[in-house]
Design brief:
Thrombin, subunit H; six-stranded antiparallel barrel
């Protein structure tokens, strides 16, 4: 090669290196600017207009990676214990219109032979999770609230197994099923009383009854909420519910709500269709005793007082926030359980033969405390009584007219 061509080649090579260096510098600057501007928007950083240092950017990147890794690890640890619950009925029974599927029966127009009539048809599904290695699992009561149905669980690896309904909680939207076996992956139950608003939570469930073990993430938006779950055909009040903005959809019911330690702190149970990102879960502490009862007694055991009540708060000059009040008793309480009759004939305030009846409680009595612990909006009468067992003797503080007194009541078992 002659000297002139060699010189040109070297010049071009040098220019190429210079351009590469310039482009690399620009790209690095743009990347640093982008990361700094994005990371600077996080509340964890100082809101002052000063630019983050490279060390601060690197630290935040490490935090994000660690949080993402923690989420992945938690999901991988819990998911094997989460199952889809499938509810099935015989095709012949559905054709007779006895099913409440979609509120109006499940009909077939063609005549069925015996084999076709006995065929099981899926009518609904939800989510559940194993709490013991020998096959006990938790879900919502409304997921399995179908008389004469057969239940199956679909595990994380796609295996379908028959399940038996052990019991449903008469007071909470909780049910327990069992699958035969002795080596199931299980979850760890946490402490829902330790929850804090803003805490990160993860929901796992059978979204839309189609997408098994879907994972969503959010925060605890509120605690001790009182909400009504269900529809016009079957609705119930859930006390002390956990509110979260983690995306929960039909089919997620009965699935676990977990924290970043991988502990289940709630059972996903309801979603509000009046607003976006508003969902609710039953605190797991409400379900722990149900699991213990089933393991000990073979059924869920709940204490029963035997009264119908509404919560009331005193107004100035009157202890009752209702028409017709006017008692001279001083307002010594903030919230009380007013014993009232229902709207329908026979809906009495005090059930005949109940512990309340035996103790002499009457309609218009106001229960203001259980064992000196006062009622509140967060701790209503049912919640305070749930800490006790059938057969326990508890002291109730009662307001009747102008008198306040204590009465001892021996609790019975619900349903007996």
């Amino acid at each position: 090669m002659d000297e002139s061509k060699k010189s040109v080649t070297q010049t071009l090579f040098v220019i190429g290196l210079a351009i590469s260096a310039i482009l690399g510098s620009v790209a690095g600057s743009l990347t640093t600017f982008f990361l700094t501007s994005q990371l600077g928007s996080f509340a964890l950083f100082d809101s002052s207009p000063s630019t983050l240092s490279p060390e601060a950017v690197e630290s935040r990147i490490v935090e994000l990676i660690e949080e993402e890794s923690a989420t992945i690890a938690v999901v991988e640890r819990v998911t094997p214990a989460v199952v889809s619950i499938v509810v099935k009925k015989e095709r012949g029974e559905l054709q007779n219109g006895s099913s409440s599927f979609f509120g109006g029966g499940y009909y077939f127009t063609e005549p069925l032979d015996d084999a076709s009539a006995a065929q099981l048809v899926e009518i609904s599904s939800g989510t559940g999770f194993f709490v013991t290695e020998d096959g006990y699992l938790l879900t919502n009561r409304h997921v399995v609230d179908e008389e004469g149905a057969s239940f199956f669980v679909v595990t994380n690896d796609g295996e379908e197994l028959p399940a038996t309904l052990v019991d449903v909680d008469p007071l909470q939207d909780i049910a327990i099923l069992r699958v035969e076996g002795d080596a199931f992956a299980t979850v760890t139950l946490g402490d829902s009383d330790a929850l804090r608003i803003g805490q990160t939570v993860i929901a796992i469930g059978n979204t839309l009854s189609e997408f098994r073990n879907t994972v969503t993430k959010g925060v605890v938006s509120g605690i001790n909420r009182r909400v009504t779950a269900g529809d016009s055909y079957n609705a119930e009040v859930i006390d002390q519910a956990i509110q979260t903005d983690a995306a929960i959809n039909p089919g997620n019911s009965g699935g676990p709500l977990i924290n970043l330690l991988g502990e289940v702190i709630g059972i996903n149970t309801a979603v509000s269709f009046q607003g976006e990102s508003v969902a609710f879960a039953i605190p797991i502490n409400e379900a722990k005793r149900a699991v213990e009862d089933v393991q000990t007694y073979g059924r869920i055991v709940r204490p029963w007082l035997g009264v119908r009540y509404v919560l009331v708060t005193p107004e100035a000059g009157s202890p009752l926030s209702r028409e017709g009040g006017g008692s001279e008793v001083e307002d010594t309480y903030e919230v009380g359980a007013l014993i009232v009759s229902g709207d329908q004939p026979g809906d009495v305030g005090v059930f005949a033969g109940s512990p309340a009846d035996a103790a002499g409680l009457q309609e218009d009595d106001i229960i203001i405390a259980v064992e000196v612990e006062e009622l509140s909006e967060e701790q209503a009468l049912a919640e305070l009584l749930s800490d006790y067992r059938p057969g326990d003797v508890v002291t109730l503080s009662v307001v009747r007219g102008t008198e306040q007194f204590d009465v001892e009541v021996t609790l019975a078992e619900y349903g007996e």
